[in-house]
Amino acid sequence: MFKSKRNRITATCAFCFGVAFSLSAFANNCASCWDGCFAERRACRAEGHPASECQAIFNACGNICGCPIP
After folding, report:
1. Contact by Cβ (8 Å): 41, 62
2. Residue 49, CB-side half-sphere exposure with 13 Å CA sphere
3. Which of 18, 51, 57 is nearest to 37 (CA)?
4. Does the pLDDT at position 40 exceed 90?
5. What is the 8-class DSSP label of residue 67?
């Protein structure tokens, strides 16, 4: 009984570590994607395009990221 409980605890800890590691990687990918979208929007505005056009491009870029809005 003792080993079974110990194995369960070890497996649970390993699972939690794996989930945390995966979420961290996902968050980093989202951050870099959104950073690219922000840079694209700044470049659009710097080129003199209307804010509404740049915002539409930004929104499309964000949808491609597939991540929550920061």
Report:
1. no
2. 14
3. 57
4. yes
5. S
